[in-house]
């Protein structure tokens, strides 16, 4: 195991010793004064008792950051890598690993998974919410298959939207800025049918990166429109939550050597979510969830090339034109039933079942329609042995026809120094099941409307094809961590420290691009390091948030098959940090400064060093407020972002925003 440097060890030791000299408070099993989280064990717990490392991004941090892209918020989370493959294609991954797709993190919105079944990824561009809709984000930093099943491999991101009763009746947001950024949003909230609701409509647009490494113009713009609504009602012992969202958008891609027309992808996404919670008693409740989501991608363009590339041996033309597509449709249904029981003041349990039905179809990727069913049983128990010692034991048992049976356990022990202060030791295992693209691809391009066609043959097949590997096994991770969480609520100061050692095996590391399609379980990875996070709010005027991570990664092959070590390490910076400082003056100016740093990240081993500055002025009268904001983002380095062709011409990007609330 690689060990953190002596300086890191001393620094963390001093912080922990510092905690032992502060006043201690009486122990209680739960306290409303302590920050509560729901995501790690599907159970409401304060942060000193959860069986995992957890970070929280709340509304105040979102506003102070001045960020306009949801994925960029996770630069504030220790150990989390964020990069953009294109202007519209973000990748977010805890501890990095492979930069190709966001496929090793489970992402939830109000408990609903947005993990797309067809290509096993999270498409951040097609999530039908705006950043202003978010109330808080809980990030579980570590394997979470014990609670959320396969694909909660490296961690879980749970985005919690704003409750209708907590927002203003009318809200309007406008943002203009660099790269032809034009964002508009309107929101309305009211009461109806013994409940409250919120409706949001938004339009988002920008041009993406400016140039590639050779100075050529990039074509990676995005434009989308979205609508979402949330309804909440509490009737007798029932709590009802309903959600509905729709998004339509368009993205562009750079032209390849054979492209004639601009590749444009048009997408439509919608979701429906429902949650019914029944309080059987003050200690017992049952929760039922049903979620439905659907994605439609239309990607069509014209290509050119010699006839033999399309299998046309009798066409005498030197070059022909043809129409190609990468159309894709997918849908997912989730049914979740959970029972939560507080047996006594020292013992709590949750148990439930989760069913997933996925469907995807594509002429190009699969040649047919594919279906997948996943069945999961999960449980978690929290037991307080003494006033000082508590345990969490959880696990998930899953079955999927093409993958088989899998069990993912987690056990955690806590030693409580006092209320809100604890040391933890956690051991967990998790899996990521291979996606349909990896196991069942029948990838071939059908060329239509071939022209000229002297012999009358107007259809053909591109000669390069790829076939999935049905013998793939799930990726595995075994994680060990020791940590400390302290909440000094007298000072509004929180500290979290984590030391970890992870072993990842059977990774599907090789390329899954058409020309090098080779999905096999041949990658292993060892990661170890230390993370720390500080949140300090001495008054309602000040907000300080600091994070740091040191990660050592070593990848190696588990077979004699070709394997490139950098495939699983290039998205993991050895050192990364963020610092957010925000101050609100008495005359309603809000000033924020944020810095992000990540060393050696991306295929070109680029560092990322950026400072963001935000200043806002709010004017209020009666029930109305108006705010104008300026945000500047300055890159201190001259590196591209993640990939060598992702370059902005200007080091400084600037945005002006207007916000109206009534």
UniProtKB/TrEMBL annotation:
One of its GO terms (biological process) is siderophore transmembrane transport. Residues 48-156 form the TonB-dependent receptor plug domain. The keyword ATP-binding does not apply. Belongs to the TonB-dependent receptor family. It is a multi-pass membrane protein. GO terms for molecular function: siderophore uptake transmembrane transporter activity. It is found in: Cell outer membrane. It comes from the Bacteria. Pfam families: Plug, TonB_dep_Rec_b-barrel. Residues 175-597 form the TonB-dependent receptor-like beta-barrel domain. PANTHER family: BLL4766 PROTEIN, TONB-DEPENDENT OUTER MEMBRANE RECEPTOR. This is Colicin I receptor. Keywords: Cell outer membrane, Membrane, Receptor, TonB box, Transmembrane, Transmembrane beta strand, Transport.
């Amino acid at each position: 195991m690689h060990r953190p440097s002596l300086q890191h060890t001393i620094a963390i030791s001093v912080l922990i010793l510092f905690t032992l000299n502060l006043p201690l408070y009486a122990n209680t099993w739960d306290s409303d004064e302590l920050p509560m989280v729901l995501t790690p064990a599907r159970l409401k717990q304060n942060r000193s008792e959860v069986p995992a490392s957890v970070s929280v991004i709340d509304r105040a941090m979102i506003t102070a950051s001045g960020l306009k892209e949801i994925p960029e918020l996770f630069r504030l989370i220790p150990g989390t890598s964020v990069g953009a493959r294109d202007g519209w294609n973000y990748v977010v991954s805890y501890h990095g690993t492979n930069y190709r797709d966001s496929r090793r993190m489970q992402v939830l919105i109000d408990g609903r998974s947005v993990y797309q079944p067809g290509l096993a990824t999270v498409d951040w561009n097609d999530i039908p919410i705006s950043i202003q809709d978010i109330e808080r984000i809980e990030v579980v930093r570590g394997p979470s298959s014990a609670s959320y099943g396969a694909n909660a491999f490296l961690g879980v991101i749970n985005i919690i939207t704003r409750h209708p009763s907590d927002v203003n009746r009318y809200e309007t947001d406008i943002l203009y800025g660099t790269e032809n950024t034009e964002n508009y949003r309107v929101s309305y909230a009211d009461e109806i049918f013994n409940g409250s609701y919120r409706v949001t409509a938004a339009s988002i647009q920008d041009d993406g990166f400016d140039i590639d490494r050779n100075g050529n113009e990039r074509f990676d713009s995005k434009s989308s429109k979205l609508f979402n609504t949330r309804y909440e009602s509490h009737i007798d012992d029932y709590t009802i939550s309903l959600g509905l969202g729709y998004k339509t958008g368009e993205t562009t891609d750079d032209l390849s050597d054979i492209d004639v027309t601009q590749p444009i992808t048009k997408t439509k996404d919608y979701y429906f979510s429902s949650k019914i919670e029944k309080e059987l008693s003050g200690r017992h409740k049952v929760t039922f969830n049903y979620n439905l989501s659907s994605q439609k991608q239309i990607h069509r363009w014209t290509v050119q090339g010699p006839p033999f590339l399309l299998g046309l041996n009798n066409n005498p033309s030197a070059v022909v034109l043809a129409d190609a597509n990468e159309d894709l449709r997918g849908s997912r249904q989730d049914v979740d039933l959970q029972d939560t029981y507080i047996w006594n003041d020292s013992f709590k349990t949750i148990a439930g079942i989760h069913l997933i039905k996925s469907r995807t179809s594509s002429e190009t990727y699969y040649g047919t329609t594919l279906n997948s069913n996943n069945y999961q049983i999960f449980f978690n128990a929290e037991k307080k042995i003494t006033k000082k010692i508590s345990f969490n034991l959880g696990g998930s048992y899953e079955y999927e026809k093409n993958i088989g049976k899998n069990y993912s356990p987690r056990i955690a022990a806590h030693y409580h120094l006092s209320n809100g202060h604890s040391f933890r030791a956690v051991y967990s295992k998790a899996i990521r099941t291979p996606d349909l693209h990896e196991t069942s691809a029948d990838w071939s391009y059908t060329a239509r409307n071939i022209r000229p066609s002297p012999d009358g043959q107007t259809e053909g097949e591109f000669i390069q094809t790829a076939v999935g590997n049905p013998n793939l096994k799930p990726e595995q991770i075994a994680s060990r961590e020791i940590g400390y969480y302290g909440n000094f609520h007298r000072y509004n100061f929180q500290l979290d420290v984590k030391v970890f050692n992870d072993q990842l095996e059977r990774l599907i590391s090789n390329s899954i691009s058409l020309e090098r399609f080779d999905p096999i379980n041949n990658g292993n990875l060892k990661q170890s390091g230390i993370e720390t996070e500080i949140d300090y709010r001495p008054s309602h005027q000040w907000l300080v948030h600091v994070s740091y991570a040191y990660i050592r990664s070593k990848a190696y092959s588990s077979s004699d098959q070709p394997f490139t070590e950098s495939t699983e390490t290039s998205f993991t910076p050895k050192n990364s940090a963020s610092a957010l400082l925000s101050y609100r003056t008495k005359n309603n100016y809000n000033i924020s400064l944020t810095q992000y740093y990540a060393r050696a990240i991306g295929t070109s081993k680029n560092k990322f060093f950026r400072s963001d500055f935000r200043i806002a002025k709010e004017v209020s009268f009666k029930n109305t407020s108006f705010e104008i904001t300026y945000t500047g983002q300055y890159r201190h380095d001259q590196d591209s972002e993640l990939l060598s062709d992702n370059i902005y011409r200007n080091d400084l990007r600037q945005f002006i925003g207007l916000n109206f609330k009534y």
